[in-house]
Amino acid sequence: MTTIRTMCPVCGEVELLPGELSLELTALSGTGSYLFDCPSCGDSQRRPANHRVVSILLATGVGYEVIDDPDRITETEIARFTAALDSGDWIDQLLH
């Protein structure tokens, strides 16, 4: 099975399966961002994806969404935010 290596600023290098990442492609540019939750610490991460990274992620089967505005808040981000608020320990996460 294909594994993808990337970095978490807290945990260092981590390995993910294609289904554990998502890719947001900026319309007409061929670049974007990839998103994942660190398998070690659980922090949500967003990393830039240049043409090379986009090609690799698409070739490994990572799902994608084409977006018009890379600075907009996505439905997934809203869902993660509300889930974090519902968890009850959001203040501890905010302080770290």
Structurally, the number of domains stands at 1
Q: Structural class of the helices, strands and pairings?
A: alpha+beta
Counted beta strands: 6
The coarse overall form would be: globular
Residue share in β-strands? 25-35%
**Strands of the largest sheet, in order across it?**
5-4-3-6
Question: For the report, how would you describe the main beta sheet?
Answer: 4 strands, mixed
Average predicted local confidence, pLDDT: 88
Q: H/E series, N to C?
A: EEEEEHEHH
* Helix-residue proportion: 25-40%
Catalogue the unreliable spans: none
The number of helices is: 3
User: What is the first-to-last residue Cα distance?
Assistant: 34 Å
- Give the radius of gyration: 14 Å
Concise account of the structure shown:
The protein has 96 residues and is of the alpha+beta class. Helices cover 29% and strands 34% of the residues. It has one domain.
